[in-house]
Every structure is written in C-alpha cells, then in structure tokens.
Amino acid sequence: MHLKLTDLALQRLPIGTHWDETTPAFGVRVGKRAKTFFCIRDGGRRITIGRYPSMKLVDARIKAKGLLLGVYEKRTAPGYLEAVESYLKQVKPDLKLKTYSEYARILRRMPFITVEVSPSEIASCLEQIPKASTRAHAYAALKTFFNWSMRNEYCESNPVTRVRPPKKLAARERVLEDHELKAIWHACDKLGGYGTLVRLLMVTGQRKGQFARLQEEWVDFKHKRFAWPGGAMKAGQPHTLPFSTLAEYLVRKEVPIDGFYFTPLAKIGQPFTAWSKNKAALDKLVDLDHWTLHDLRRTWSTNAARLDVPPHITERVLAHVAPEGKVASIYNRFKYENEMRDAMQTMADFVASLLVEVNEEIRRNFL
Predict the structure, then answer these.
(1) Using CA atoms, how far apart are residues 31 and 53, in angstroms rounded to an integer?
(2) DSSP 33-45
(3) What digits encode the pLDDT tens for the residues 14-40?
(4) pLDDT in tens, 211-226
(5) For residue 108, what is the DSSP state?
(6) CA 48, 53, 54, 56 torsion-angle sign
(7) How far apart are CA 276 and CA 191, in angstroms?
(8) What is the β-pairing status of strands 225-228 and 16-20?
(9) Region 118-129: what's the mean pLDDT?
(10) In Å, how far from its chain's centre is CA 171?
(11) 178-366, what's its fold?
C-alpha cells in the first residue's frame, strides 16, 4: 500500500507493510507491537532503519535517502560479547547490583558469536539450563538485551519474542518443621561462617543478601540493633532491626575483616557469595526434603503467627512495605521498635527451646 506517510497517518496505520509515496523504496512495517521503518536497496535487500516513535518519521526518511544514495551504510553490528559489554556498561547505573550481576553472569555465558541469533538457538540454550528459576531469569535477561540491540540497530528483530517463555514457577510454600530446624542448626556447627549466616537467617527471618553484606558499622551493640542502609535492602529502603540475645551471640562469634563480617578470605572487603557451594555441603549433612534458605524466612513468619506475634510487627521485622506506605515508613523507621524487639526475643527463645545446649551457652555468655 502506497501513501504519503505523516505522523498522523503513522498513528492510524493498520497491521501490514506501507510504502511512502514521497520516498521510493522507503516504508514502514506495522506489527501488533511495533512500527519499523525500512528501505529496500541492492537488488531487494531490506534494511531496517529504526522503530517509531523512538525514531521520528523525518529522521527515518532522511536516513533512508542517505542509504539509498549510498551516503552512508547501516551500522555494522559488533560481535555478541562486545554488544553485551556495551549493554552492561550502559544499564549498570540504572540496575540494582543484584540484577546487574545476574544479567552479566547470564549474558556472558551464552555461546553466541553475533547478535543475529535465531529463535531456535535461544531455545536450545535455555533448554540446557537445568534449574527452572535460572532458566526464567535467563529468558528475561536475553529478552531485555535483544530489545536494547534492536534499538541500537544491531539486529532487526528480537529472537526471544518467538521463543515460548519458561513456565511460571509455582509459589514456594515450604515451611520447615521444628525437627528440621534443629537438624539444620546442628549441621551448621561444621560450616564455619556460613553456618553462622544460616543460623542468623533462622532466628531473624531476614534475606540472605542482608547478612552477606553485613558491615561492622551496621551493628549497634550499644542499642542492640542492626541498621541496614537502603542499598543493602531489596526494596531500597533502610531497615533497622533490634536483635535478640541469640542473634547478638551469633554475630559476636564472627570477627569482622576489613569491615565485613562474612567477607571471603579470597576477596576481602567484598560480600559473602559462596552460597551454592556451602548449601550443597549443608545438604550432605542433613537428610531433608528439598529446601532453600529463603524457606527459613517463610518459616520465621509462620512461627511468628504461631507465637502470637502481631502481623503488622512481623511485616516490619521482615522489612515488607509498611501499611501506611513507603514515605511514611521512612519517617517511622523506629516506630514499634520495642514490639519488634519483643518479637525477635520471642523467636530466639523458641529456637533456643529446641536446642537445650544453646540455652546453656547463652546463659554462660550473656545472662
């Protein structure tokens, strides 16, 4: 279909290919989700120019004329890994550290040579990832990367959109039984600092990333509380948490190195990262059905209800968004501190009740 392309006409075009009357061999392809400018040259070779509205019609027409007259050629796409590094450098300031690290790990391991990848190659790589959650993360990372590649004219389409998304993960519902908590606690005796980390997750209900980054200045022994800055929290908001006698005992067992409580000896001054290796070692010591460290957080919440901890206190302990909203939660950072402290001690007493020897050790050291 030939017509005089205008901005108004572009907004109303139906799905299909439309040619510009004023510029021969220049047109726009309208799909369900995108409108793509292109031109035809060199014996019928189609060259993608850009996408509307990211590229204005006037700019697309000028570029088409330049390509048709040979004034300049379409940008040469870099190799896959070169494009990945450019992408990561550009998006790093806008991504959370955890998201950036995950994207970098996934994208750098893909065996592609160029950015022009077929959907079948994408599907084949995803199928070789055994873990469902990692497969879903890889799909999301690749889709975002190839969208960026399209905008930068490194490829004409996003191959990931033609690959069936991995099945959505079922909601996790694992809650550990009392005897399982006891078994895990005892196994942690043989796992050094990692064992302390797991025990802290058990008695505090916090996310593992918070303790992986735990720094000396974030522990206030005088007022008996942790104070994580926003950068260490999933929601990006600072979190102040009173700690129990048991949590204090666990933290005091560790000696900070270069300011970090759980920094790897091979990477001093950085957060703890060896989760998978140590979890595998822990699983060899306890004969339990499949469980994850995040199950300790769900178990904490479940047991809090069992111990009559008010739900709104549990939400604050777990650093969920306060009922009154994010803004109010910032100004109410120390609100309910006494109630949170009581909840933390109640949970610590419960865990200690499963472990008589822990009661004795705490009594010797802190009571």
Answers:
(1) 14
(2) S-EEEEEEETTTE
(3) 988 999 988 888 999 998 878 888 888
(4) 999 999 999 999 999 9
(5) H
(6) positive
(7) 13
(8) unpaired
(9) 90
(10) 17
(11) hpI Integrase; Chain A (1.10.443)
Q: In terms of Cα–Cα distance, which of 107, 111, 95, 112 is closest to 138?
A: 107
Tell me the per-residue pLDDT of 190-200, one tens digit each, with 9 for 90 and over.
Answer: 999 999 999 99
Contact 39, 49 (CB under 8 A): yes
Better-predicted residue by pLDDT, 34 or 45: 34
What pLDDT digit, counting tens, does each position of 174-191 carry?
A: 899 999 999 999 999 999
Which SS3 state, helix, strand or coil, does residue 53 take?
coil
Mean pLDDT of 94-102: 84
Cα–Cα nearest to 193, from 175, 207, 214: 214
Find where tokens 């949170």 sit: 340
Nearest-5° Cα angle at 253, 297 to 224: 65
Mean pLDDT of 54-62: 86
**pLDDT above 70 (res 321):** no
Q: Provide the residue ranges of all domains of the chain, joining segments of one domain with +.
A: 2-69, 80-162, 178-366
User: Span 248-257, mean pLDDT?
Assistant: 93
The fold of the 80-162 domain, in CATH, is DNA polymerase; domain 1 (1.10.150)
Residue with tokens 């904490």: 300
**Can you give the pLDDT at residue 290?**
86
Rounded distance, CA 191 to CA 318, Å? Answer: 25
Encoded amino acid at 292, one letter: T
* Distance separating alpha carbons of residues 29 and 35, to the nearest angstrom: 6
Position 327 scores a pLDDT of 46
SS (H, E, C) 229-278: CHHHCCCCCCEEEECCHHHHHHHHCCCCECCECCCCHHHCCCCCCCHHHH
Contact 14, 31 (CB under 8 A): no
pLDDT value of residue 360: 64
User: What is the CATH topology of the domain spanning 2-69?
Assistant: Double Stranded RNA Binding Domain (3.30.160)
Place of tokens 């593992």: 208
| φ, ψ at 229 (rounded to 5°) | -75, 165
Site of tokens 């979190």: 239
98 vs 300, higher pLDDT: 300
| CA–CA distance, 5 with 129 (Å, rounded to integer) | 46
